[in-house]
Amino acid sequence: MSAVKIALVQMRSGVDPARNIDDAEAMIREAAANGARLVATPEVTNLAQRDSGELFDALRTPGEDPALVRFSDLAQTLGIDVLAGSLALLGPDGRAVNRSCLFGPDGALKASYDKIHMFDVALGAGEVYSESENYAPGDRAVMADAAGLKLGMTICYDVRFPYLYRRLAKAGANVMTVPSAFTRPTGRAHWEVLLRARAIETGSFVLAPAQGGKLEDGRKTWGHSMVVGPWGEIIASLAHDEPGLLYAEIDPEESRDARMRIPALKGEREISGP
Questions:
Q1: Which residues pair with 211 in a beta bridge?
Q2: CB count in 10 Å sphere of residue 84
Q3: Which entry of 96, 175, 253, 271 is 20 to 30 Å from 62 by CA?
Q4: Sheet containing 175-177: which strands, arranged edge to edge?
Q5: Residue 193 CA to its chain's centroid (Å)
Q6: How many whole angstroms from its chain centre is CA 267?
């Protein structure tokens, strides 16, 4: 098949879901007008809120959250695939879920994925994150078709766990989506390296739309949204943390070629010890 034009939305989401959805919609419409067939937004597109009380006051269940309806209508109106990189939603057990949702050109929800790996870290200088205090982790890897591509759906901190990407690639995914809200310290040190590593290891494209700049809840995020090719090359990137759009054209045949040249997905061996 021919190359597919995709667009990544870089945002600076705040604590007002309605404003966040409006901001995302404006950029998705612009991307579609410029020919993108798949548009992806970053992690916590609808709500970036670290305060537990404020978070749960704002959360809605999937059946009640307006973001799902808006993104569904938008995908159908524009006739494109829309990946809401992740939405903060109220889960069935009363905890939040960090959920990536893919909507097709008919507006249907094609697939959803709940972030598996929780960001529980202490970065130093008082910067501590305890995602598992509020969010329930997912337990299922998800792959879906979009614009002729086979997406392996992941979210942010998942990128540090190569086994997930290998499993998705072996199941047939040739594009890994990594919507993120990377912190500045980890972004500066690890963002590009991790994205390129996951691409090289699996012979896959990696699409990483990001939150950028200082968010209303106090987080300072890295931005620098990026598209990486299956040979590990940076196809496109934003060299800043401001809101904006990043475009690229990707040909899934390049993933097949990379995997033929370096057949690492077929090279596993059983080992013993330690």
A1: 11
A2: 30
A3: 175
A4: 142-146, 149-153, 175-177, 205-208, 226-228, 234-237
A5: 17
A6: 28
Q: What does the alpha-carbon distance between residue 84 and residue 72 come to, in Å, rounded to a whole number?
A: 10
Rg of the chain over CA atoms, in angstroms?
Answer: 18
Catalytic residue among 5, 110, 115, 150: 115
pLDDT digits (tens, 9 = 90+) for 119-131: 988 887 777 788 9
Q: Of these residues, 5, 131, 150, 156, which one is catalytic? A: 156
Backbone φ and ψ for 81, nearest 5 degrees, come out as: -90, 135
What are the structural domains, with CATH classification, of the chain? 4-264 (3.60.110.10)
* Catalytic residue status for 43: yes
| Single-letter residue type at 165 | Y
Q: Give the least confident one: 5-14, 118-127, 183-192, 214-223.
A: 118-127
Per this entry, what is the length of the chain? 274
Annotated catalytic, 101? no
